[in-house]
């Protein structure tokens, strides 16, 4: 029996081997690394593509939503041009936060998400945007298209998490700074810029 055309003999790299999606930048594929139930920060190892432990969370704060990245994106000069107070892109795939009504308790999963906005973040002077999206076809959030339709308290929780998730207890100055919260139109520009950065850095 021949292998189907979509079969991978070896596991594809989550960053490079998974498509961003045919409906990008409106709807994108997201690879989830961390869930709201995790007290350890996991992230994909850039070389092997396997999940690794980055660090235990220093505080009791949990990510309020699913957190991962958009495949085949890169934060370089084009993303940096949309984040005027940053000195350069952070050299990572574009981060994404995905809101889901049903609890998704395991990471290392793929899903489709509709882009509704984002947080313009700066981490050690580097552009570190966080795209905000909702799970496609979600029973509660699936029809939302703009960040202004989300409860303000949810955006506040996201902002608080990113402002504090790298802080050591006793520190008062955050390492991550938020310069803006933007809507779907700008978020899609950031995604397109990250796709262009990926093509320029890695090739098509």
**Backbone shape:** globular
Number of helices: 3
- As for the number of domains, it is 1
Report on the biggest sheet: 5 strands, mixed, barrel
Report the average pLDDT across residues: 92
Describe the fold and architecture.
- With 204 residues, the protein is α+β, with helices and mostly antiparallel strands.
- Helices cover 18% and strands 30% of the residues.
- The protein contains 3 helices and 10 strands; from the N terminus they run ββββαβββββαβα.
- The strands form 2 sheets. The protein has a 5-stranded mixed barrel with strand order 1-4-6-9-7.
- A hairpin with a 2-residue loop joins β7 and β8.
How would the blueprint of this fold be written?
Blueprint: E1 27-34, E2 40-44, E3 51-56, E4 66-69, H1 77-81, E5 88-89, E6 95-99, E7 109-123, E8 126-127, E9 130-135, H2 152-164, E10 176-183, H3 184-202
Parallel strand pairs: 5-8, 6-9
Antiparallel strand pairs: 1-4, 1-7, 2-3, 4-6, 7-8, 7-9, 7-10
Tags for this model:
204 residues, alpha+beta, Inorganic Pyrophosphatase, five-stranded mixed barrel, 3 helices, globular
């Amino acid at each position: 029996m021949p292998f189907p055309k979509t079969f991978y003999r070896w596991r594809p790299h989550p960053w490079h081997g998974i498509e961003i999606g045919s409906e990008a930048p409106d709807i994108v594929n997201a690879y989830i690394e961390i869930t709201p139930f995790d007290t350890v920060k996991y992230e994909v190892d850039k070389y092997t593509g396997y999940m690794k432990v980055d660090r235990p969370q220093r505080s009791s704060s949990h990510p309020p939503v699913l957190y991962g990245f958009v495949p085949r994106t890169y934060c370089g000069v084009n993303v940096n041009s949309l984040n005027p107070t940053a000195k350069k892109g952070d050299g990572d795939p574009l981060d994404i936060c995905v809101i889901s009504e049903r609890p998704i308790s395991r990471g290392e999963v793929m899903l489709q998400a509709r882009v509704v906005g984002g947080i313009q973040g700066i981490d050690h002077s580097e552009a570190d945007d966080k795209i905000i999206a909702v799970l496609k076809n979600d029973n509660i959030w699936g029809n939302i298209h703009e960040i202004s339709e989300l409860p303000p308290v949810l955006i506040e929780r996201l902002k608080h998490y990113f402002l504090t998730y790298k802080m050591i207890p006793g520190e008062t100055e955050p390492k991550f700074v938020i310069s803006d919260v933007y809507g779907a139109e700008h978020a899609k520009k950031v995604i397109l810029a990250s796709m262009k950065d990926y093509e320029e850095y890695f090739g098509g």
